[in-house]
Amino acid sequence: MSRLTTAILKGSPTDAKLFSRNPHQRPHYHILVKTDDKPFDIAVNIASEDPNTADVRVLYAIKSNITPPQVDKLLSLNNGMFNLPYEEIKGIDYVSDGLVTRNEMQPLPLFNRSEPIEQQGQPEIKQLVEEVIAEADAVLYAFGHRYDQRSSGNAAWGFQPDDGIHNIHMNQGNARGNHDDENGRGEDGALFLYFPSRQTWYGVYIAFQTQSFDNDANGYPKLDSQSTSGENTPHSAGSRGRHPHHHH
Fold it and tell me: Is 1 among the domain residues?
């Protein structure tokens, strides 16, 4: 179990863009979500910053016509951000919940650093989020870790006070020394998108190529050889661009 705060955010997405405060780091895909009383930011990793990885593309899968875990509880949940567990809703686990396998995932297309940030991106995830934004009653659910260090204002969208959710990806299987302080079972991140008019669910799953899908009860790889890339990288290096202020 990590020391981070596992959370779920439910609301209506109103905007999305690629954003990075640091031009030398790859941007995250930020989604602005409105709830009944305040806005939130979702920061989705679209590439790795690991200097020891030759292929920095993240793995992803988009599944349609799914039934997410705890579906009845998700539907009855109020809009807002909630630390987990909350009202019998618990965190999700790619492996034990059978959400996605490594074989079902493929590398997410990289953006071109020479193009303006707002013109870059990952067409599949971007298109799906834009569909949700366009449909008035569509709902987005984000599982991940709550921002643990916040600024007076959110840099991506400008609202105050800052609040949001990040690590929208698998949060287990990191080798020791490479973000292993984020390892935990039942703490994985994902996006679930629900279209009430069609009663259709989509799931968006992301993992790093260095992560293992065969892990112990604490989320550590059973065989470090499955996740050796970057294992000697100190966490402070921020090798995936996920230092505490990454969402800025």
Answer: no
Residue 248 lies in a domain: no
**In 3-state terms, what secondary structure has residue 29?**
strand
Share of the chain residues as helix, strand and coil, in percent rounded to the nearest 5 = 15, 30, 55
| Predicted model pTM | 0.86
Tell me which residues of the chain have a pLDDT lower than 50: 225-248
List the one residue out of 217, 235, 232 whose CA is nearest residue 180: 235
Instruction: Please write the tens of the pLDDT for every residue from 138-158.
Output: 999 999 999 987 888 999 999
Flag whether 246 is in a domain. Answer: no
What range defines the domain where residue 162 resides? 6-237
**Domain membership flag for residue 152:** yes
CA dihedral (90, 46, 127, 65) positive or negative: negative
pLDDT digits (tens, 9 = 90+) for 48-67: 877 677 778 889 999 999 99
pLDDT at 176: 81
Q: Which residues contact 145 (CB under 8 A, 6 or more apart)?
A: 2, 4, 5, 6, 7, 165, 166, 167, 171, 182, 187, 189
What type of residue is 152? Answer: S
Rounded Cα distance between 109 and 137, Å, is 29
